[in-house]
Amino acid sequence: MFFIRVYKGIIPYNFLIAGLAYFFTRNFTKAASTLLVDYSCAMKLSAPISVLSAMRDCARNGILAKGGKFLEEFAESDTIVFDKTGTLIESNPVVKKIVVFGSRKENEVLKLAACLEEHFPHSLARAVVNEAASRGLNHKEEHTKVEYILAHGIASSLDGKKLRIGSAHFIFDDEKIPLTKEADDCINTITGCSQLYFAIDGELAAIIVIEDPIRKESCAVIKKLKDSGFKNVIMITGDNKHTAKEVAEKTGVTDFVAEALPDTKVSWIEKLKKEGHKVVMVGDGINDSPALSAANVGIAMGKASSIASETADILLPDDGLDSLPVLRKISRNLISRIHGNSRAIIGINSALIAGGLAGSITPQMAALLHNSSTVAISVNAMSSLD
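Now predict its structure.
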């Protein structure tokens, strides 16, 4: 923290001034005046009080900051990176349509997909399970043990047939499922939506198209963040480029990265930090946790997974995207207050030290004025920052 660096660095000068005063004047009273007026005393009181006031104001707005240093980092950050699902878009996506291939029935495919996805606490998985429930499709636990591959998909088997559901990377690259021309043509027509790919026994059985409504506040929040000094507003998503581009254009982010895996997100954040940027990461899912940890400040949405919430440095309230500009305002006001108080402390105490050395004020008066100004500045540090 800034104030810690300042008051630790300024303490030796108090003793140096007192020593020099006694050396040149041989007057113990004047030397004592300089020791009774201590720069670090006021700083050690007012700065932590300012931080506590900022954390109080955050809590009043439903924001949980796990430490003052994260508020300082957030205030000084110039780059903010968003995950897409659950942050810039709603966390309750719905199934828009199901494209089946071959002679399979739509409800049959959805029933099997829901049977796998019910084990996975992700918004896209919930969309599949909810769609099956809305159609009255009851699915029994007939498949074998489910294996969840982080940020890729889910693997299981039923009646000796391999079941796979997940991202395009998982299905086509990892599982080597053939991509037919029919499926490829279908994929190229889907824009603005997420896709889950479902394969049965080595063949693509269906594409489940999931609509992700953009949060109504996303555009306004991103504009406010840009106005507050964020030079780079980036979206990183596991979705394809078509979907990512459409969401980016609608929300106003300055750049986007599509088809990203958890390690891709971390690599991008590390790259940005090496370029000299101070980076904030905003996410909500299990696969966002490594990126939240890698960023200078990790921020989790209110309905984030437990792992993301534990990893993050700051927690927003439920559906709290609107809280980001508020958090920026509080954190920047905190830094301004600490700097302002420091200037006032140095100015007042320097004047008192000069008065003591000149003999115009007594040590008792210097101590009284010093302590009075410390109390006044500390009381001012309690006022609201939001």
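The chain has a mean pLDDT of 85.
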